[in-house]
Design goal:
With 110 residues, the protein is mainly α. The chain has 5 helices and no strands. It comes from Streptomyces niphimycinicus. This is Transposase family protein.
Length: 110
Amino acid sequence: MSQRQLSKLTETLAPDGDTQRGRPPRLSFREQVLATVLHLRVALAAEPLAVLFGSSRTAMHRTLLKNRRLLQIHSIAIPPATTPPAALTALQARVLALTCEPNSKIKTTC
């Protein structure tokens, strides 16, 4: 997905999804949309996305649910990608490196 496509998708979803209630979100709405696209394109779960975006797993899960509903309301489908194994391997290595850092928010067995 190009930057332009992501911007257009964010603009389409923003009127319904970029609402402020309670504490301000840690991630911008554009970052939330990007996380949702990654979730749908490469089947990343909430926990690795939370690590990548510096968010909590719970907040990421809520973000994914909200944005999936918005996509459905707007009849927008994000198909799964046929991702080269090297890209997924690099992404998995990044998540693992972030979760094994001493200041990581998510406790692991590293």
